[in-house]
């Protein structure tokens, strides 16, 4: 979710999406709005997930305290980066997350502190050449639940066009390297996609595939309505997003 509308998050959940990602890295929602969107997603029956702004304990902790059951941490390039992300997700003695789940404890359980370390998922993003060179070290960090590919940033760092899919061998080799590393270490591979690309990625082995962007859905719907009323061709836009 790039926008900041809780009703859209709830609608997506009620339509049958397994999870709803509130994007705090590139989206426009404030923390207050993100809290409402997480509540709405859960009311609709979906798992609330937050892509945090940075790999910092404050960003990760506040997203989890607001009720996210998983975080997607951007720009994780080394095993040390991965360890910092995990550490911020877990309470002592296995991590250093500060206790204060104000929204989470009222939404989930009075026993939240005991179960959170096993319940909250930590996904780290692989989206650079540096990260590709450190894949095995990253995915072998204890507490990493999954690796999440940012295909547009990955394309850029490989010197390719910034788009969600590139047929070039180096892009496909990078994607397959992530899948292979995840399989070897028993973690879940995830990726940004769109509805056209999703079946291909699932067939290739991804198990967490994010499709359906609220901003693009709004633009597409408005474009179709306008073009239909005018009898013109719908406007075009880029389908990509990192």
- For the CA atoms, what is the radius of gyration? 18 Å
How many structural units, i.e. domains?
Answer: 1
Q: Tell me the CATH architecture.
A: Alpha-Beta Barrel
Biggest beta sheet attributes: 7 strands, parallel
Query: And the CATH topology?
Result: TIM Barrel
Residue share in β-strands: 5-15%
Name the average pLDDT.
92
**SSE order, one letter for each helix or strand:** HEHEHEHHHEHHEHHEHEH
Structural class: alpha/beta
Q: What is the oligomer described by this structure?
A: single chain
Q: Which runs of at least 5 residues are low in confidence (pLDDT < 50)?
A: none
Q: Helix content range of the residues, please?
A: 40-55%
Q: What is the CATH level 1 assignment?
A: Alpha Beta
Overview of the structural elements:
The protein has 242 residues and is α/β, with parallel strands linked by helices. The chain has one domain: Phosphoenolpyruvate-binding domains (TIM Barrel), CATH 3.20.20. Helices cover 48% and strands 13% of the residues. The chain contains 12 helices and 7 strands. Strands 1-2-3-4-5-6-7 form a 7-stranded parallel beta sheet. Strand 2, helix 3 and strand 3 form a beta-alpha-beta unit. The protein is globular. It starts with 5 loop residues before the first helix and ends in a 12-residue tail after the last helix. The mean pLDDT is 92.
